[in-house]
Design goal:
By secondary structure, the chain is mainly α. The chain has one domain. It has six helices and two strands. It has helices at about 15-40, 50-70, 75-80, 95-110, 115-120, 130-135, and strands at about 85-90, 135-140. Strands 1-2 form a two-stranded antiparallel ribbon. α1 packs across α2 and α2 packs across α4 (about 95-110). The longest helix has 30 residues, at about 15-40.
């Protein structure tokens, strides 16, 4: 990876929060576009097993969105904008297992009243809990020359 020669500096907490805000806008669009075919086929997914299936489907679409970017380049569009890259602790690209663990742990941290994100305020390296557990970290990328 070209950034290995450069010291891997951690992305600051304010930058990571800015990425999350931008990512929220992108994820809203992904969910709306992903929901359309399901809603057109199912017609009514507000109750019963179709509702549960719809939620699982949307969660799968989110995993596909994030993992595709994380595995390919380590950066979603929001991360590219803020020059942040997701890497393994060694600085290499993520494995599918790391991407899946990070995604799952991030959801668990979010569902636990956001405690997985608040963790960064107390972590010695200011890492989110899902990054700590998945063996990943967010680094700053140097500006292109």
């Amino acid at each position: 990876m070209q950034d290995k020669a450069i010291a891997l500096s951690a992305a600051s907490l304010p930058i990571r929060l800015a990425v999350m805000v931008y990512e929220l806008l992108l994820v809203a669009a992904v969910l709306m576009i992903s929901a359309l075919p399901f809603v057109l086929l199912a017609r009514d997914a507000q109750t019963g097993w179709l509702h549960t299936l719809f939620q699982v489907y949307l969660l799968a679409m989110l995993f596909l969105y994030f993992s595709a970017f994380w595995l390919r380049s380590g950066q979603t569009l929001a991360m590219k904008t803020w020059r942040v890259r997701l890497v393994s602790l060694s600085g290499d690209r993520l494995s599918l297992k790391q991407a899946a663990l990070r995604f799952a742990f991030a959801w668990l941290g979010l569902l636990a009243a956001g405690l997985g994100f608040v963790w960064a305020l107390f972590d010695r390296d200011r890492q989110f809990l899902h990054d700590r557990l998945a063996g990943t970290r967010l680094i700053r990328v140097a500006r292109p020359a």
